[in-house]
Design goal:
By secondary structure, the chain is α+β, with helices and mostly antiparallel strands. Among the domains are: 19-48, no CATH class; 50-108, no CATH class; 231-334, no CATH class; 348-468, no CATH class. The chain has 14 helices and 13 strands. A hairpin with a 2-residue loop joins strand 8 and strand 9. Helix 5 (255-263) packs across helix 7, helix 7 (298-307) crosses helix 8 and helix 12 (391-412) packs antiparallel against helix 13. The chain is elongated. It starts with 17 loop residues before the first strand and ends with a helix. This is CRISPR-associated protein, Csd1 family. Pfam families: Cas_Csd1.
Amino acid sequence: MEKKKQKIALKDIKLSFKILEFDGLRDVSVSNFNEMHHDFINYINNNSTEIGIGICNISGKEDRIIKNHRKPKGVFSNGKLISQNNKIAYLGDRFPNENASSDIIKIGYETSEKIHLMIKYLLENNNSHTWLGTSQYLINWFSDDLSNDSQLDIVKPEFDDLFEDDEEEKQVFIKPNEENKKIGSSFVRGQKLFSNNATYNIAILNENKGRIALKYFRQLQVSQLLKNLESWQENYSWEAKTKAGNYELKKTPTFNEIINAAYGVDRERYLELDNDSFRSDQYQQLVTALIDGKPLPNTIVKKLEDNIRQRQKYSKHWYQVQQVSLAVLQKQYGREFTPMLDHQETDRSYLFGRLLAIYELFEAQRYALDGSSQERVTNAERYWNAYTGQPAKMMTHLENKIKPYEEVLKLNKPGIWHKLEKERKEIIQLMTPMYAHKNFTQSLDYKFIFGYYAEKQFYYTKQAKENEE
């Protein structure tokens, strides 16, 4: 098969070559020939028509001050990190012309080159950047300490050692590697995936209308990072079913799972969010909350609280919404819930959640007699929204709805019926003192989902143990 011809622009081609035995028996590459690099820098400085020599406001060193800066390119093909507005923006008394823009900030050529080459390299290296959606990227890199005593300096020719394998090179440079990749991934996943002997920097860059914005930057000791990650995992995790069918492991939902559970639309294969810009903003909020050791954004928490009351919206992916919500809500508002059923808990919402699970189990176990439990929608699911909004009223309604299923179950599976009936009596007994309270008829808060989940797990776990015996 004839290969398709491709056009290659010469301006996009970069050549590198070496001279054999240039320095005695040593081969010298143009990529690491320091003397040539310094000569070129001196040539540029001596022939510059830029503003002139001055103190760079960023480095604090004397440098050739410039007003035009390179583009990082790479994933940001057209964006500029340092730029100025159109000429019209400088009309007036303060900045009468475009050249006066240097009055705002003076940036040296060497400083500008360091910034742009560093960003370009980190964005091009797969181990040091993570895409956060749309035109937003997270970059991270290691350093020996927060003041960078390791002297990583990408303007120096030694930076090219990152691209070539020079056996005679004795200096050691910081290179993005698998550890960087794990760190970048851990911010998205909310999990600890890296060793304890690291110090790192992180930044979030976003391109919009030809300009690149540095939206976030942090430089942390690894001890603080580990503390933040461990706290995140502890506060936002829930038991997950393993391939073996048990619930021995805890799972921290990924940022993508949290965003989709909060804002996604229930579709055939996945929970999907079509607004990439909005998703990117949520990613940034989650990343910054994790790194800064802050709680998960309250807007997401409230959205999940709302979603768990609307089960009908998630006919295909309710389980995912439920599991993410349990992980996020389990330590909210000073309360902590576990998957284990608390028979002493007297919270109204928790008890109504337990009762809802009992109604569902009565009906589901009746359907199981015919082998159709997976296909049928129970009344508990059908009236879920109404029940969470008007629990006292719907409690009576569901009691009447499940009576026919109770009778069949009582005749054919009396053991199961007795177990469920025992649980129901316990719940009603705990709820009885609340009947006279004004808030008894009010809508349920998020705690109902923990009562619902724990009651179902209690039943199925107990049933499994009895079957094994």
